[in-house]
Amino acid sequence: MAKFNDIQLLRTTFLRGPSVWTYRPVLEVWLDLGELEDYPSNKIPGLNERLTSWLPDLIEHTCGVGERGGFIQRLEGGTWMGHVMEHVIIELLNLAGMPAEFGQTREISRRGVYRMVFRCPEEAVARVALEYGHKLLMAAINDEPFDLKPAVHAIKTAINDRYLGPSTGCIVDAASERRIPHIRLNDGNLVQLGYGAAQRRIWTAESDQTSAIAEGIAQDKDFTKRLLAACGVPVPEGQIVASPEEAWEVAQDIGFPVTVKPSDGNHARGVTLELSKEADIKAAFALAQPEGSDVIVEKFIDGVEHRLLVVGGKVVAATKGETVSVYGNGNATLRELVEVLNQDPRRGPEQEYPLDWINLEAGAVKLELNRQHVTPDSVIPQGQGVLLQRNGNMAIDCLDDVHPDVAYYAVLAAKIVGLDIAGMDMILKDVSKPMQGQGAILEVNAGPGLLMHLKPTSGAPRPVGMAIADHLFPREDGAGAGRIPVVGIVGTRNNAFISRLVGWLLQLSGKLTGVASSEGMFLANRHTQKTNTANWAGAHRLLTNRLAEAAVIQTTARSILEEGLAYDRCLVGVVTDMDGYEQLADHDVLEPGQMRRVMRTQIDVVLDEGEGVLNADLPEVADLAELCDGEVILYATGADNEFVAAHRANTEARHEGGRAVFLKGNNVMLATGTQERVLGTLEALSLAGGKRPDTSALLAAIASAWALDITPELIGAGIKTFEYQA
């Protein structure tokens, strides 16, 4: 069989926000099929069989058919290679543990060239998936071998390198469920939830309400215990020691058995329990010393380890631990038994799995083995148990069993330390009974891991991400939690002027307002940047600014095509025109009608409670009204505009009729249904210094301000005081 030349990847563009394709980030790839344009899938012998043998779950892809096996039907009936590559990439992402769920492939005006997109929130991951999807498809086309396992591993590695950790991720997912937007601020786990002045920040399970003082207290475990004890919280007796010899002396004074641990460690590293022998205590000191600044010897309290998660003064999750042991069969060595134990799918790296792998070379494990006089190479007799780990495996859900008294002390401890989110390590004989006499608080942890509550080895997963999201954004704040008024404006006709006037009116209404426009960045009365900010980067900077109580963002058709919008939704979306297709031939926009698909993006993102503002003088713009999830305000330079008349008469969206701003004679009118109000004459609505703005641009700004519930009186007064210089 003759070999086909590679499909050429002409262009790859990561669209970071809502775009012509979808609301979420996608990678857009321009593909040149070359000679393969003449060879759909049913004309390449063996192609479909090779694809389905390597990727059997392609059967689950419904494709446009809308049923299981839909894509296979398309393969067998004949579909082009751009479409096939789309599904191959989506399946590779599925196998790597990141369902893509969305893809599209569309031919452009040039024969054999297609735009293919697939959803992926991280550009680096998307590019790795594209690389291996391309390789797999070409191997299948040319009947060459392909090793799937390294491909999936490479994508998984990219996911692990780039994706949020489970603690941060579950909070972000919960916020998204409540339609609270998020912005990732670095390559790690620092995330902004919400926009502008309404934002909150998280870093794993810490928030911007987590006090640095409280975190410092929690890290000093000895001082924390003294604070808790002073407030009546049961804690084990203990003391900081400076040497192995002092550790032994203090242990004798406290009374056996004891626990030896670092004073400021975490994740149970360096902690050794239930020690009574001098050699063991001194060895435990050596184990704990590298993990913290000091070493503590404290009284060992018999019971079961528990972790209670406290969020905003409430216990929202609880797990309990269990020791880890293996049992001999008379043939296998301890090392072999542990290898089998580590094959448990629940075990893995601590940030990803509820149970850790058991490492026989770890100091704590070695110490446990020494106490039992066994080595990794010992053959363990039939039925004999070997204790490997006493702590650090708190992954059995027990929230429903927590006694109110136990919860009280957990909440009290968090308040004493000053943490809004805290993980309480407690030792309890029975979590369902009152605390006194049967337990104590061992540690208070800032930034606690959440994975044990999300993926317990037994019991119900707990919605801890939602608990933290609700703590940061109380439900009583309503549907707009985390949002500031965002006005998005797209078009070419005086849009910088419109943006700045709307920003000025918002500022006068009492909101510190930022404007990102082609004339620069403005914050309140300051011109903070003079270069063009009518793009993704400019909008992004504005939305991350904690001073901004409202944002007006100008964008362009090119920015939508090359970057996507920087915001997920807006309160007001404005489309002034659909001009400029002549400058977009490089995006295969070749005629005016193709602009609708681009410009509708601004209206597609209007919130349900928001409004679209559309130029009714242009039928192609007025027709976008049907796409708006919110209400619509039309503006026009004539009172007899047919779109305005029909909109005012429409009582479906608003029972009193649609709203419009238009010119009647020389008067600017605000109309709701049949009701009309004169805002002022064009002369009276001149800018400061008597400047007369473009009439259509003035009407667009007035309509936008009205959509923001700014009063007509303030709109009129604000226009007259607006000092505009381009």
Give a written overview of the molecule.
The chain contains 23 helices and 32 strands. It is flat, with a radius of gyration of 32 Å. With 726 residues, it is α+β, with helices and mostly antiparallel strands. The protein folds into five domains: 8-162, no CATH class; 167-232 and 301-323 and 390-477, ATP-grasp fold, B domain (D-amino Acid Aminotransferase, Chain A, domain 1, 2-Layer Sandwich), CATH 3.30.470; 237-300, Dna Ligase, domain 1; 324-389, no CATH class; 486-721, UDP-N-acetylmuramoyl-L-alanine:D-glutamate ligase (3-Layer(aba) Sandwich). It is 32% helix and 23% strand. The mean pLDDT is 94. The longest helix is centred in the first third of the chain and has 19 residues, at 123-141.
Count of individual beta strands: 32
Termini separation: 65 Å
Low-confidence spans: none
Percent of residues in beta strands?
15-25%
**Largest sheet composition:** 11 strands, mixed
Q: Which of globular, elongated, flat, extended, rod-shaped describes the shape?
A: flat
Q: Whole-number radius of gyration?
A: 32 Å
CATH architecture of the largest domain: 3-Layer(aba) Sandwich
Sheet/helix structural class: alpha+beta
Report helical residue fraction: 25-40%
Number of domains: 5
